[in-house]
Amino acid sequence: MTAPDLAPPWCLDLDEDKPREECGVFGIVGHPDAAAITALGLHALQHRGQEAAGITSFDGHRFHSERRLGLVGDHFSKGEVIERLPGLSAIGHTRYSTTGETILRNVQPLFAELQTGGFAVAHNGNLSNGLTLRRKLIRDGAIFQATSDTEVILHLVARSRRNRFVDRFTDALGQVEGGYAFVGMTNRELIGARDPLGIRPLVIGELDGCHILTSETCALDIIGARYVRDVENGEVVVIGPDGLESLHPFPARRARPCLFEYVYFSRPDSVVGGRNVYEVRKRIGALLAEESPVAADVVVPVPDSGVPAAIGFSQASGVPYELGIIRNHYVGRTFIQPTQSVRELGVRLKHSANRAVIEGRRVALVDDSIVRGTTSRKIVAMMREAGAREVHFRIACPPIRFADYYGIDMPEQDKLLAWRMSVPEMREYLGVDSLAFLSIDGLYRALGEPGRDDAAPQFTDHYFTGDYPTTITDLRGEAAKQVSLLAEAG
């Protein structure tokens, strides 16, 4: 089979057609180096958002904030920036904009002076009724400074008539829907909250007797902190002078954490829901090899996210694992590209085929997912250009057929390749000799479950199944259309 006719294979960025990471949050209370530790934690969470980062600290009298567009290391590795963030408490955020533009006023943590005092908040996820609430608040006279849905929480807290701050905060949470993990800071307390289904992750750590809240355990590892436990779904934790208080202000619901944390988002060395992400991804690859074996000479991962699954695929199948695509991690974003021909050559600096591994061989390519399919076509073309005799694509998750409204920046449904095409049609479009995806039951088995319980799913998996676990108030029309399309598709 020949590769499809498309742009030169060297015009390749392996990150351009991925579900974008959500955001990362971090907070610590009671530590003399709170801002510096928060900056280190954000370094570990950089994979969750590369557009912007911010830190807010409290010194016992005043709040201090530094927010920047760009990477954590570009701004918060500088001593003078950390010196402008004094205090024993700090929260931080790495951002990829799922809601709101990439502008400085949207960079978190957001801060407001309320009747109860200053309040800073950082948010991972998406409020699926945020636009509806925003419109209502504006009609009632609220003035918004940003376009992020996170600002809605500030207004809801400010308008609450409850007395204690934590009661105002839970009052606000009771009005929102969607997937979220919040880390907030007042002049007395660090506050964390996780949505009632636990869609977005949040964990508790401890360093030198000081409590930490963060998105992933890898942020604890980088600072030598001890993992204590996950924040439970629907739980609100308040950490103050008297220690940690756990509140469950909402009716108990069964947890349904996001499956994409295991497929793609979380760092491989993190532990999510008691499961080591690297080991889960290797099991995913092994089950993929079991479900969809292929006669191949070499297993090649699509770097970097496809690496653990490819290792598992290789180990289970006995087909040798090789680095057939070489990624240069030292290429910056500002490479001068004056002409199209130079731009095409410049992309080779980022990724290139390892011809010695590929030429004349039957290649089993392993990737974590296919979204639009544009990058996957280029990868296949690159393999053909390097002399591959056959190219077989194996995808370490089920086909992504539905949009996300809980904090993942994913295209609308009509842009998703698996919605527009059947697997045979995708195979032709991508130009591969064979194409197979891991089954939904296989993905559940990789997580230690016997399979998906269709009556009571154990995880949030709507991007594969169309089973949205909450109301989507802001997109009622779009959601209704998707349900109708799903019914028509059988």
Brief digest:
The protein is an alpha+beta fold and 490 residues long. It is built from 18 helices and 21 strands.
Describe this structure in words.
This protein has helices spanning 34-44, 72-75, 79-83, 130-139, 150-159, 165-173, 218-221, 260-265, 277-291, 307-317, 340-347, 355-358, 374-385, 417-420, 423-430, 440-446, 462-465, 476-489; strands spanning 23-29, 52-58, 63-69, 89-95, 110-114, 117-127, 178-185, 190-194, 203-207, 210-214, 226-230, 236-240, 243-247, 271-272, 275-276, 298-301, 325-327, 351-353, 362-367, 390-395, 434-437. The protein is α+β, with helices and mostly antiparallel strands. The protein folds into 2 domains: 23-257, Glutamine Phosphoribosylpyrophosphate, subunit 1, domain 1, CATH 3.60.20.10; 280-489, Rossmann fold (3-Layer(aba) Sandwich), CATH 3.40.50. The two termini are 31 Å apart.
CATH-defined topology of the largest domain:
Glutamine Phosphoribosylpyrophosphate, subunit 1, domain 1
Relative strand content: 15-25%
What's the β-strand tally?
Answer: 21
**Number of helical elements:** 18
Mean pLDDT: 89
Name of the CATH architecture of the largest domain: 4-Layer Sandwich
Radius of gyration: 23 Å
